[in-house]
Amino acid sequence: MNLQQITTDLDRTIRRQLRRTDTLQKWASGHPALEPSTDALLDQMRDLNRDVSHPVLAVLVDLAKAADEHAAQLVFVGLLQKFADKEKAKGGTWDQFPGHLYEAIVTCHSTESRCLREIIERNALRRNLKSRTLGSNEVSLDWADRIPSNEPDPESVVVRLVAREEVLAMVDRLAREQRVTEATRRVLHHIAAGSDRATVAEFAGRSANTIRTRCRRAARTLDNQQLHAVLGAAVA
């Protein structure tokens, strides 16, 4: 069963459950950000405008963390559709991903960041990656031929989850503010652009392991700046 079939089945199930209970009305009465409509909640969670998606997603994730299974399932269906579309368009290995996504939702540490959706997706992708590698932090060096690779590896996930234009603008601003080095800025530009390592002059003669280490370190720097300083207040 592919992700689209799973998403469709779960969507039908959660809609049926919500119709048979007064859950939507209870949510709406206790949380002004929530409308008593399954369609509206799903549309809002998937909205690319974080001013629309974050208030709804934050409340539902908090409810999910408090053991509200309906909230957890609704968020799960809302976020899974994106990856069902990705699987249909690009293929890939997603067999265990639904379980990792659900776990990332109910164990989310905080719902305060306005890039909450991206945090959950990133954590789910990382869990999925680790489940497919021999070691918890090992990544196949065969994936170093392209940056990022066609598979969701840790050093490129954070870049993919935010619009490329926003990432490039953010990196340039951080460089101007001297919050990342010029070398880090160049590496992050290569990651965001999906550059083939063979065409990147500064990687000439470098081993795959060296390139991967530099990319991982640069992306981790962006990740930290993004989640704790930049996105939370500016573009998140």
Question: How would you sum up this structure, described in words?
Answer:
The protein has eleven helices and no strands. With 236 residues, it is mostly helical. The chain folds into two domains: 3-131, no CATH class; 141-230, no CATH class. α1 runs antiparallel to α5 (69-90), α3 (38-46) crosses α5 (69-90) and α6 (97-106) crosses α7.
Main structural class = mainly alpha
How much of the sequence lies in strands comes to: under 5%
Number of helices: 11
The biggest beta sheet, please? Answer: none
Q: What's the Cα radius of gyration?
A: 19 Å
Q: How many β-strand stretches?
A: 0
Low-confidence stretches: 134-163, 227-236
H-E string: HHHHHHHHHHH
Q: What portion of residues is helical?
A: 55-70%
Q: What does the average pLDDT come to?
A: 75
Quaternary structure type: single chain
Number of domains: 2
Shape: elongated
> End-to-end span in angstroms?
34 Å
Brief synopsis:
With 236 residues, this protein is mainly α. The chain has eleven helices and no strands.
